[in-house]
Write a structure and sequence with these properties.
With about 350 residues, the chain is mainly α. The protein contains 13 helices and 8 strands.
Length: about 350
């Protein structure tokens, strides 16, 4: 039996729930959508267009990987030292004839050409469109965090100068200095590297080798990338020696030289290793770093929050990283001196040969 003391409390709680106002959504004019913020109405239309015409009805496909890469390449055009204030302003699309001459933007024309017709179809800025497309593409990958999306960037921009995008052939000191100049710490850089968990790229040595994945689960936002980057490399996807690539442990997988160095450098190795068994921390820190990246060059207070439009990502089937078949802790190049490498399960089976994504 409930006590007399609890009855009044329960009655008050019931009244409070009954009195709680319903979620307020406004009907968008000339459309089927409703929105919490009326300024976000147009993004629901864009969402449907992107999912149908770019992301194959909401799949974590190559275009999703490329869209996420594009958000970084646009936004990192920001420098305190050189007084470059553009940031996430859409300049890579508005001035593609100039910015694509930077070798670091190699192959990014594919996604730009794909989404440009949609970007000019709607009354939004290129900067907004690029960040939104990256957030939607990421949401299509199981296990990913739901990224923040703020809208309201101006469509006015100037071309970013070359040399601001960290290159895969650069050493760690150079990369950390470049990121510090854009206000990012070594820990935030490692968090941004989680984007490579759903990444793929053309082989530098042979452009016909399209979309080689960075890990064995390119359709899942998980920690496999952080494990496999620490495995002893065996061969390049195309053989030979190539600037910007390092031998990878699995046939068909591609490893950027800079990723291998960051995984092993004492300034970043422990943060790198920490994500192997902490998917929640990886997602949380990646989301925070991406939110910071997306407003480089802008006053956050001048933008409006349309995160409501970003789909809720599906939960990954298994968040725990594992050793790929025929690998074990013996193949790990232990780099964090303060913490032992965690014990992981070994995937049964024969050595993998990864298909092109």
């Amino acid at each position: 039996m409930l006590s007399k003391t609890l009855l009044p409390l329960l009655s008050l709680a019931t009244l409070a729930v009954a009195a709680a106002p319903p979620s307020r959504r406004s009907q968008c004019s000339n459309s089927k959508y409703t929105a919490e913020n009326i300024k976000c109405c147009v993004w629901y239309e864009i969402l449907d267009d992107l999912q149908e015409n770019v992301f194959d009805n909401g799949q974590c496909i190559q275009e999703a990987h490329e869209a996420l890469r594009l958000t970084f390449h646009d936004a990192i055009g920001f420098s305190i030292k050189d007084n470059v204030k553009g940031g996430a302003d859409g300049s890579i699309m508005a001035h593609s004839d100039i910015e694509l001459l930077d070798v670091a933007n190699g192959n990014i024309d594919d996604i730009l050409n794909h989404i440009h017709p949609l970007a000019i179809k709607y009354p939004v800025s290129f900067g907004d469109f690029i960040q939104f497309t990256g957030a939607v593409g990421t949401a299509n990958c199981k296990g990913a965090p739901r990224l923040e999306f703020l809208a309201g960037r101006s469509n006015s921009s100037v071309a970013a100068p070359p040399g601001l995008i960290p290159a895969p052939f650069q050493d760690v000191t150079t990369i950390l200095a470049r990121m510090a100049d854009a206000t990012f710490s070594p820990e935030e850089l490692v968090a941004l590297m989680a984007s490579h968990s759903v990444a793929a790229r053309d082989a530098i040595a042979d452009p016909s080798q399209h979309a080689r994945p960075f890990d064995t689960t390119p359709d899942a936002f998980d920690a496999q990338f952080f494990v496999e980057t620490l495995l002893v490399g065996k061969a390049l996807p195309t053989g030979g020696s190539t600037l910007g690539e390092s031998p990878s442990p699995i046939l068909g997988e591609i490893r950027l030289a800079s990723d291998g160095l960051l995984a092993r450098d004492p300034r970043t190795a422990c943060e790198w290793q920490s994500f192997v068994t902490d998917h929640e921390a990886m997602n949380r820190k990646f989301k925070a770093a991406m939110a910071k990246l997306a407003v480089l060059g802008h006053d956050r207070a001048s933008l409006h929050d349309c995160s409501e439009v970003i789909p809720m990502p599906k939960r990954g089937a298994g968040q725990q990283a594992v050793f790929p078949p025929e690998t074990s802790i013996k193949d790990i190049e232990q780099s964090c001196k303060s913490t032992p490498f965690p014990i992981l399960k070994i995937t049964p089976g024969k050595q993998l040969v990864l298909p092109i994504v």
